[in-house]
């Protein structure tokens, strides 16, 4: 259902470095690269992508309260790697990787502009 998500940034070059590192771990590259807009995903196999932009209206980029982008990882190890990359690239912690119940495993972080993201995967729920 979702084609892509766009997040505002105050500094496109700084944001590009942050998202290049995360996209590389997830196995994606840039699919669009314009002066004030960059998108990551896979054009050969359409699915949800993520992009950053300087707001087209010329106003400052701000964070949406209650907005979060979830990045699908293949397993808990990749969740941790994505989370660690985000923190190493200057992101901030919003909840270390761990089981959140019901087989939902996630790590939460904010990008350099304060946008909230997580890396997640579904694992087998614990046997009862």
Automatic annotation (TrEMBL):
InterPro entries from the UniProt entry: Glyas_Bleomycin-R_OHBP_Dase (IPR029068), Glyas_Fos-R_dOase_dom (IPR004360), VOC_core (IPR037523)
Coiled coil: none
SUPFAM superfamilies in UniProt: Glyoxalase/Bleomycin resistance protein/Dihydroxybiphenyl dioxygenase (SSF54593)
Pfam family, one: Glyoxalase
Listed PROSITE patterns: VOC
Domain VOC positions: 1-122
Name the UniProt record assigns to this protein: VOC family protein
Organism classification: Bacteria, Pseudomonadati, Pseudomonadota, Alphaproteobacteria, Sphingomonadales
